[in-house]
Amino acid sequence: MTPVMFLTWGALAIVLGTIAGWSFRWILSRCTTGYVRIAVRQAPVAASFGMLIILLYVGVAILAPLIAPFAEREVVADQFMPWSATNLLGTDNLGRDMFTRLIYGARNTVGIAFAVTVIAFVIGSTFGLLAATVGGWADQLSSRLVDVMMAIPALIFSLLLLTIFGTSIISLVLVIAVIDSTRVFRVARAVAQTIVTMDFVEAARLRGETLFRLVFREVLPNALAPLIAEFGLRFCFVFLSISALSFLGVGIQPPMADWGSMVRDNAALITFGDLTPLLPAGAIALLAVAVNFVVDWFLHIASGLQE
Amino acid sequence: MRKISNLILQRLALGFVTLFLVSLVIFLAAELLPGDIAEAMLGQSATPETLASLRLELGLDQPAYIRYVHWLGGALTGDFGKSLATGRPISELLHPQLENTFFLATYSIVLAVPLAIGLGVLTALLRNTLPDRLLNGVALTAISFPEFFVAYILICVLAQTGIFPSMTRLTPGGGLGGFLYSAFLPALTLTMVVTAHMMRMTRAAIINLLALPYIEMARLKGMPSLRIIVIHALPNALAPIITVVAINIAYLITGVVIVEVVFVYPGLGQLMVDSVSRRDMPVVQSIALIFAATYVLINLLADVLSILTNPRLLHTK
User: Over the stretch B251-283, which tens digit does the pLDDT of each residue have?
Assistant: First the structure.
C-alpha cells in the first residue's frame, strides 16, 4: 500500500461515513417525536454516525451465532488461507474462519469491556458519591488512597496485578474494573462535591434522611449527566486497554475469539502485504471512535452550550 | 519569592511521599500472592525442606517490613534482586533495555511536543474554520485508535515500500543517525498517538484564555491575532500546556510497552510483557517501579515548572 493509496482510502472512508451518518440521522428524525426529535435533528453528523456504528456492533454481538457461517472455535481449512467464497476473509493461524472470529469478537471483546465498565462504575461512583457526602477523614483517606493508585500508569499497574492473579477472564475483569474505578471515583467525587454544598442537600440532611437516601436519592440524580458521559469515555478506555492487553498476550485468552489477540496471532501476514489482520484492529478503532463521537455530542448537550 | 519557594518545597515533599507510597503498593502487591515466591519458583517439586531452604536463601523468613526496606534500599542502589525465570540479576537484564526505552521516549517527545504545540496554536488561531474542524476531527479519531493499529498502518504504508525497517534492530556501531533511522517508525507511532491529545488540549487552553478581557483589550488596540496568541495568550497558557505534556508522558509509558512489542524493539516494555507471561514477579515489580517512579517524577517536574512559569506567582510583591 502506497501513501497515496492510503490517503485515497482515508478520504473515501470519511465520505462514506458522512453519508451514512447523514442518512441515519434522517431516518432517526422520522421515527422520533418531541424533544428527542429536536435533539436528533441538531445532532452533528459525526454523532449520528457514531450511534449507527454502536447500534451495528450491538446487533452483531447479539446475533453473532445467526450471522457467523461457522462455529467460534471450529477449524475449517488450512492455515492462513486467502479470501475466498467459503472463507470470506480467509483463515487465521490455526485455520479458523476469520470472518466468524471477527463476528464472535464483537460479542466477547465488547461484552467483556461493557461488563468491566459497569463494575468499575458501580464501585467507583458509589464510593465517590459516598466520600463527598460523608466528608471528613473518610473522604481524605479514600481520596489519598486513590491518588496513590492513580500515580501508577494504568497499563503498568494492570500488568503487575495480572502477574499476581494470573490471566483468567475473572481476574482480567476484576483487575481492570478496580483500576478504572479509581478514575470513576475521582469524577464522581468532584461532581458530588459541588452538589452536596447546595441547599436542598442541606435541607435533606436536616430532615434526617439516611445516608443511603442522601447518596442515591438526592445526590445521584443530580450527578447523572456527567456520570453518563464519563461512562462512555470510561468504556472507550476499558475497551482499548483490554484490547491492548489481549494484543500483548495477557488479556482474553485463546480459544476465545477476541480482536486484540486476533491482531497478535495473525500479525505475521502484514509483512507479506496481506491486510486482513488490520480488520480486527480497525474494528476496535471504529467502535472507540464511534463512542467518542457520541460522548462528545452528549457532553455538548449536557453542558447546555450553544455555538 | 518566599511564597514560591514554599510552594515548590511543598510539592517536592508531596511528590516524595507519593513516590514512597507507590513503591509500597508495588511491593505489597506481591504479598497478595496465594503462597509466596518460593512456592511459585519450585512449583510441583516443592517439599517442605526445599521450600524452607529457598525461603531462607531469598530472605522470605523475615517479616514483610524488613524485606521492604531491603528491597527499596537495593532498588535505590541499582540492585533489584534476581529474576525467577533465569536466576540472573535483574540489573543485568535491565541494562541495555532501560537506555533503549529512554531513547525511544525522548525521540518521540522531541518530535511530538513542538508539533503538538504548533498545531494547537494554529488551530486556536484558525478556530471554527474548516481546517480547524478537519484537524480536530482527525485528532479525535487518532485519540481513539489503539496504538497497535496506528503502528501496523504505518508499517503498511511506510515499511512495505521499503523506506523504513518494520523491525527495530539496534546495532551497537550504528551511531546516532543509525538509531534515529531504525527507531523512526516506533517513534512516529508514539508521536501520532500523543500529539492528538496534546494538540487538542493546547487548543482548548488557548481558546479559554481568548475569552478574557485583556485579550479583548489587545484586539481593540488593533494587534494582529498571531501576535495576540504568541505574546499575550501563550505565556499564560504555559502552565496548562506543561500539565498536558506531563499527562501525555503517561500515555507514552503505556504506548511504549505496546509499540515495543509491535516493532520487536529491545526495551523495557518488551521485557515487562515477557516477564508477565512467565509470571516472573521480581522483574515485573522492578520495571513497574521504574515506570511508576518516572511517571511520578515527571508529574512533579511539571508541577514545579507550572508554578515557576505562572506570571501571577512570579510577579507578586
Answer: 788 889 999 999 888 889 999 998 888 888 889
Q: What is the ipTM of this complex?
A: 0.86
Decide: B81 and B71 in contact? Cβ < 8 Å: yes
Give the whole-angstrom CA distance, residue B155 versus residue B164. 8
Domain A69-306 carries which CATH code? 1.10.3720.10
pLDDT one-digit tens code per residue, B158-183: 877 667 777 776 666 667 777 788 88
Contact B144 A285 (CB under 8 A): yes
Cβ proximity of B119 and B135 under 8 Å: yes
Q: How far apart are CA A305 and CA A272, in angstroms?
A: 50
A293/B contact by beta carbon, under 8 A = yes
Q: Does A248 touch chain B (CB under 8 A)?
A: yes
The grid coordinates listed for A222 are 443530580
Phi, psi of B89 (to 5 degrees): -60, 140
Give the single-character DSSP code of A2: -
Mean pLDDT of chain B: 83
For chain A, the domains span 69-306
Q: Where is average pLDDT lowest: A73-77, A274-278, B167-171, B299-303?
A: B167-171
- In A105-124, the residues whose Cβ lies within 8 Å of chain B are none
First to last CA, chain A: 41
Grid-cell match 463512542, residue found: A291
